[in-house]
């Protein structure tokens, strides 16, 4: 069993080629069975690949003395394998602030911050993590029930940037058996048995039931699905990149202008990828934008009605202006001009402002030159090609009232249009 596992481990690395001769690898080590087995396997190929290994431990300070015990244990592992060791304590709540993250998400964000800084400071080429095939299955199931998108279903990758997960080809049972046969000591995280956490509930209840009642090979099946999701996602990402070259008319750090007519020529799933890409580039998901927003923006595009708006966040809007979809900061909405065609209605600011233009014959009965507080009369003969431009008030605006020869300054009132 152990020889077979070591052989598969080396064979997979050789096949994928993600460990090179002379690599400097940080090993993320919690002290649990996965990371200690990963440490042992990497140490076994250390001389073969001329590797520079270093153990990195993150103390999340969430379990009091137990967290400190894990840190001490990881330090002793470094002594056992004669490897250098670094450890850092983090306050996950202080690090993630008031954002609405679960405890697991907070810990992950803080942990990866440590990894990123260590890679740069220590000038290492890779960080090796101990995620296994069971972890992958749990992640896919978690994402499935969140119902975000095809993109989120793909779980995590064996190789991503400078992160590698060599144990992803093994299930938890194989790793535990290897540790037992090789007499590898490890520590247990008591929180892994707390089924109030969703991942633990999936691990200890849902997956065992699926294995017993439906398919004992569910872990392997989820691994194959991950490959399909990843390949499909990679294709859609590439297609999205190519499409954006034609769709984007203009962009800046806070504004995207997309060509609606070209955008509508793509399948809906690619339209969602395009919108997701734009929202990510504007960092809107980090601001708490709902993952259903792309559907609302696509509905907006299909209406194609100038002035229609979707609120994305307290400071970002998406709106239609003729043949353009504009996603920008709210203050930039006020800097835009809108083409208004006579005898049409337009909604602005999420329906809070409606603009209607219609023609009236001044000779008709009952015409007084003013129908109400919100009405303004303009000379139709002065309008170019049956249309005019509408924008919000700006400092210095003037107008010439009917029957007068001089301009008057536009005063700020309840509506500044």
Task: Please explain how this structure is put together.
The chain has 417 residues and is an alpha/beta fold. The chain is built from 14 helices and 17 strands. A hairpin with a 2-residue loop joins β7 (248-252) and β8. The longest helix has 30 residues, at 218-247. The model has no long low-confidence stretch (mean pLDDT 85).
Short summary:
The chain is of the alpha/beta class and 417 residues long.
Give the neighbour order of strands across the main sheet: 3-2-1-4-6-5
**Mass-distribution shape:** elongated
Q: Which runs of at least 5 residues are low in confidence (pLDDT < 50)?
A: none
Strand composition percent: 15-25%
Major β-sheet profile: 6 strands, mixed
Instruction: Please give the count of helices.
Output: 14
In whole angstroms, the N-to-C terminal distance is 77 Å
Mean pLDDT rating? 85
Total beta-strand segments? 17
SSE class: alpha/beta
**Alpha-carbon Rg, integer:** 30 Å
Helix content: 40-55%
């Amino acid at each position: 069993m152990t020889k077979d596992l070591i052989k598969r481990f080396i064979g997979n690395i050789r096949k994928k080629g993600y460990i090179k001769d002379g690599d400097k690898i940080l090993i993320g080590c919690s002290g649990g069975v996965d990371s200690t087995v990963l440490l042992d396997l990497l140490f076994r190929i250390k001389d073969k690949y001329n590797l520079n290994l270093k153990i990195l431990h993150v103390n999340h300070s969430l379990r009091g003395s137990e967290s400190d015990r894990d840190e001490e244990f990881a330090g002793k592992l470094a002594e056992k394998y004669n490897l250098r060791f670094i450890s850092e304590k983090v306050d996950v709540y202080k690090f993630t602030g008031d954002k609405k993250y679960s405890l697991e998400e907070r810990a992950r964000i803080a942990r990866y911050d440590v990894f990123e800084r260590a890679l740069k400071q220590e000038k290492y080429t890779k960080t090796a993590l101990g995620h296994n095939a069971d972890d992958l299955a749990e992640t896919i199931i978690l994402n499935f029930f969140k119902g975000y998108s095809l993109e989120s279903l793909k779980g995590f990758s064996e190789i991503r940037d400078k992160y590698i997960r060599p144990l992803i080809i093994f299930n938890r049972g194989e790793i535990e058996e290897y540790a037992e046969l090789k007499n590898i000591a490890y520590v247990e995280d008591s929180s892994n048995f707390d089924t109030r956490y969703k991942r633990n509930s999936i691990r200890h209840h849902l997956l065992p039931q699926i294995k017993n009642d439906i398919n004992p090979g569910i872990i392997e099946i989820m691994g194959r699905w991950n490959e399909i999701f990843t390949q499909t996602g990679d294709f859609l990402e590439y297609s999205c990149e190519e499409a954006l070259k034609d769709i984007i008319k203009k962009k800046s750090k806070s504004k995207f202008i997309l060509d609606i007519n070209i955008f509508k020529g793509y399948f809906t799933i690619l339209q969602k990828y395009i919108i997701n890409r734009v929202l990510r580039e504007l960092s809107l998901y980090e601001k708490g934008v709902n993952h259903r927003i792309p559907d609302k923006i696509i509905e907006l595009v299909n209406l194609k009605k100038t002035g229609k708006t979707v609120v994305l966040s307290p400071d970002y809007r998406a709106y239609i202006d003729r043949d353009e979809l504009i996603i920008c900061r709210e203050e930039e909405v006020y800097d835009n001009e809108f083409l208004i065609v006579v005898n049409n209605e337009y909604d602005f600011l999420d329906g809070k402002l409606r603009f209607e233009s219609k023609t009236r014959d001044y000779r008709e009965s009952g015409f007084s030159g003013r129908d109400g507080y919100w009405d303004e009369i303009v000379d139709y003969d002065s309008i170019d090609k049956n249309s005019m431009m509408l924008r919000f008030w700006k400092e210095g605006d003037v107008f010439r009232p009917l029957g007068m020869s001089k301009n008057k300054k536009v005063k700020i009132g309840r509506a500044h249009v």
